[in-house]
Amino acid sequence: MPPVLDNVFGVSVPESRFLPLDATSDLLLLQSDLYTCREGVLTRNPARTNPLNPVIDLGPEFEKFGDFQSRFRSIPSIIELDSLMVRGDVWFGANITLKGQVTIAAKPGLKLEISDGVTIENKV
């Protein structure tokens, strides 16, 4: 059987040049104000003083790209966020700021809507 692809080669890129995009949790990081992408170069916001990225754990309701997009009117500001865990039927309004350690959980069978302009800091 002939090769499927001719002249294939791999390129090794250091992880400092990109962020892996394995889940919608990673997409939230990339679409947030934590990074900007100009002319193909990913740059971290200098306003972030913590050298580590926030740990983001979105529940299964956010797993599919379409569901992820529909649940955010706009991506929250996460420059001062350390960790975020979201569970249940949660919907985010516009201009939301998340700081510190935040856990948001909707009770089973209930829809939780985060209002526009809210700042959530170190809350469960």
Automatic annotation (TrEMBL):
Q: What class of enzyme is it?
A: transferase
The chemistry this enzyme catalyses reads: alpha-D-glucose 1-phosphate + UTP + H(+) = UDP-alpha-D-glucose + diphosphate
Coiled-coil boundaries: none
For the biological process aspect of GO, one term held by this record is: UDP-alpha-D-glucose metabolic process
Q: Which GO terms describe its molecular function?
A: UTP:glucose-1-phosphate uridylyltransferase activity
**Pfam families listed in its UniProt record:** UDPGP (PF01704)
> What are the EC numbers?
2.7.7.9
Q: Does the keyword Cytoplasm apply?
A: no
UniProt cross-references to Gene3D superfamilies, sorted A to Z: Hexapeptide repeat proteins
Keywords tagged on the record: Nucleotidyltransferase, Transferase
Annotated PANTHER family: PTHR43511
* Protein known as: UTP--glucose-1-phosphate uridylyltransferase
